[in-house]
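Need HD domain-containing protein's 3D structure for a figure. Predict it.
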Amino acid sequence: MFLNSYYLGNSSDQACFMSVVKDGNFVVHHLSLQLPLMRSLLKDLKPSISYLSLNELELVHNALKLAFEAHDGQKRPSGEPFIIHPVEVARILGELELDWESIAAGLLHDTVEDTNVVKFQRIEEFGLTVRRIVGETRVSELGKLKYKNEHNSVQDVKADDLRQMFLAMTEEVRVIIVKLADRLHNMRSLSHMPPGKKL
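Structure prediction for HD domain-containing protein:
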């Protein structure tokens, strides 16, 4: 992942280091007081993904680190750190014993919509399958499955929507499973959502 890392010093609450990424760009990392949170989240996630190989566990851990970095400073409506949501999505997927790519996609599914788009390029490190699942789980993309037919009847449009959804499922069923896990966790935490989001 990183070619070289350089220690930049520390302040009272965080150490900093800079890494040179494969493409030559520099990334500055802040090892702040949030590291215990990341360790705790990984510890909580591990039992549900214990069936993965050591190599796969390392890839999932790297996905968690990227998601943690991408969502740094973001909060859920409940006030808790946003990273808890993707970890819970990954836990749901782990309980279904899905493959490491699905778990990684669950951790990264909100990075495209809710964070700096440049981060999406780093998702390529996990392979084309993870990138495709992450890209296609975006709510905005799934909501655009509609198209107008020549008669534009409501019943026909709904049927066309279902056909499009089933077509997406035949291409990559994991897209739908990750999206359902995302929605399931959102439903489990509805009490903290604004009234308009509860519908």
